[in-house]
UniProtKB/TrEMBL annotation:
The keyword tRNA processing does not apply. The active site is at K186. It comes from Hydrococcus rivularis NIES-593. Keywords: Pyridoxal phosphate. This is Uncharacterized protein. GO terms for biological process: polysaccharide biosynthetic process. The keyword Phosphoprotein does not apply. Pfam families: DegT_DnrJ_EryC1.
Amino acid sequence: MLTFAPNPRYRIYTNRNSYLFLLEDLLLRKRSPEDRKEIEILEKELCSRFGTEYAVCVPQNRVGVYLTVKALIKPGQEVIMSPYTIVDITNMVISAGGRPVFADVDRQTCNISVAEVERLINSNTGAVLITHLHGLAAEAHRIKEICDRFNVPLIEDCAQAFGTKEQGKPVGAIGDAGVFSFGMYKNINTWLGGAVISNRQDVIEKIRTELASFAYPPLPYLLKKVKSGLFADIATNPLVFKLFTYWIFRFGFLNDIEFINKIVRIELDASRKDKLPESYKSQFVPFQARLALSQLDKIDRDSKVRIENGLTYYEGLKDIKELIIPPDRRDFSHIYTYFPIQYAKRDELLKFMMKHCRDVAAQHYHNNADLPAFKEFYRDCPNARHVSEELIFLPTYPRYSRSEVEKNIAVIRKYFGLN
Ligand SMILES: *Cc1c(COP(=O)(O)O)cnc(C)c1O
């Protein structure tokens, strides 16, 4: 069992420090909104890293998107955005008073199509919101140029792209505001959290004012996250994973056992929110800032490993005509947060890989443009529809070994009858 079991499809970036910092905070600290020193240090670090005037920590990326959209648009204005993102990003746009206008993605990059943005932008547009998905820069410079022509602000969702650069400039600092995530599955993990960076004082002031009204401290919601993080940490511990977890999930997947498969599926609730949920109105707290600071240094080193893994997949899969794979980039314009591949018979390939003792997963992001919850904003986005039905993630994370990458490639080649 130990020899056949693969590395898990993901690991989260918690370590002993994470739990120590949390424990220390719970046991020793008086928490008070005035105690902002560590948060200020993190915000300064982010400013110097990204070369922006301002940075403000937020309780979650999605809340950052909400606050930023609200600060930038007039109620009722249109927000051009990719339909291929998490449901809650669309919800945040709606909650902030915007009307989502879904612009289809490019099939290969899965990022918003520049041509579509250009076609859809007009005098009703309040903002353009782009997502740098999977760590791949989304042509922010070209889109910024279009936005400038119409005097429309550009917001960058960098939840999966901390450390990505486009033409040498860090993403997030190209548009009017960039929003990052320090959520549980991101390359900085403080369980919950994020930051908005910007050069615009007016935007940052509005965000800070609204944030000040949020609850402090946010412990119950945060502790719930810590609990599920701990569960993920234990389940993907190499020994536990190879002895138990993998075989349980493999059995569930190969035999279509819903209650097992459900555990790893995301976004089971794809409902519409017209208002920011009360549970989101909380604050990023000092120990989380300390945790983020302790992880900043290793980001680029980790990205280099991911890029190497990504390029290994690229070289190993590029001749397979049936697959759509991302471009090969060596200039940090793709940090390969994942290596996404698209294939029309996704489930068949996934089953084949599981049978051959690999652990990889389908991406379950919805095409928001097709969701019943957002039918008021329906637009036909065929590329996003295909991507949502065909995308598989291949793991690239730093602790994933090179030989695992090579085994994934070998099994995929075998499926297509190549060697
Ligand atoms: C994770 C993610 C988010 C949400 O981040 P939170 O910090 O959990 O709110 C938003 N957009 C994308 C593309 C993401 O991957």
